[in-house]
Each structure stands twice: as structure tokens, then as C-alpha cells.
Write a structure and sequence with these properties.
This protein is an alpha+beta fold and 120 residues long. The protein has one domain (3-113): Beta Polymerase, domain 2 (2-Layer Sandwich), CATH 3.30.460. It has four helices and five strands; from the N terminus they run H-E-E-H-E-E-E-H-H. The protein has a five-stranded mixed beta sheet with strand order 1-2-5-4-3, sandwiched between helices. The protein is globular. The protein starts with a helix and ends in a 7-residue tail after the last helix. 25% of the residues are buried. It comes from Thiopseudomonas acetoxidans.
Length: 120
């Protein structure tokens, strides 16, 4: 399964579960850990857990075996490692505090402004 297909599968599972503010970020060239990150918010610990489980089930159904998962017990921040796609599902307060969007998108914007990255 292509990375873009995995991202679409994850987004579909999150959207079906009523996740809030779903965002996918292409991090190729920024890190060697993964190619894409998908970030979404849940409204409660129960919602975060449910969203994470939905992503795991949908991925497994499509033959995409998760390499690991973290945070499913407490429900503040769940991380699902699908290899080249890493999924972060957080309660809104946790997401605001860690601000992964700024971390990953901000680094790219900074390099664009400095002229070290060419835009398409």
C-alpha cells in the first residue's frame, strides 16, 4: 500500500469517528523517522481511545500492520506507528500545548523564508 493510500485510510477512519481538525503533514526530507504525520483531536479520553482503535482496526483490515502504538490506556495522546505514516491523536488541550503543527510546518516555513528550500 502506498504511503498516500495509508494517509487517506487514516483520515477516513478519523473522519468517520468525528475527529476534529485532522491534518496531514508531509515530513519527507525533514526527518528520517517517517514520511507523513497525521494529527487529529479528540474531545475526551474516551474519544481519543476510540479514534485510535478505529485507525488500528481499519489499517489491519487493509493489510497495513502497525509497528506500534502508545498512549491507548490514558487517552490524552495516542500515537500509532504505521511505518511511513505516524498518527497522533490528542485531546485538544494536549495538542495546543505540544503544537506539533508548528514544529513540523514551522521548520519548513523557516527554511523557505531563509531561501534554503525551493517551493514548487
Amino acid at each position: 500500500m502506498l504511503n498516500e493510500q495509508v494517509v487517506a485510510l487514516v483520515i477516513e477512519a478519523l473522519d468517520d469517528g468525528k475527529a476534529k481538525n485532522i491534518l496531514d503533514i508531509d515530513v519527507r526530507g525533514k526527518t528520517s523517522v517517517t514520511d507523513f504525520m497525521v494529527i487529529a483531536s479528540g474531545t475526551s479520553a474516551r474519544h481519543v481511545k476510540g479514534l485510535a482503535n478505529a485507525v488500528l482496526v481499519k489499517a489491519k483490515e487493509q493489510g497495513c500492520k502497525p509497528l506500534g502504538s502508545e498512549g491507548l490506556d490514558n487517552g490524552e495522546w495516542a500515537l500509532i506507528d504505521l511505518g511511513d505514516v505516524v498518527v497522533h491523536i490528542m485531546q485538544e488541550e494536549v495538542r495546543e500545548f505540544y503544537d506539533l503543527e508548528k514544529l513540523w510546518q514551522g521548520a519548513e516555513q523557516s527554511r523557505i523564508e531563509q531561501g534554503t528550500v525551493q517551493r514548487d
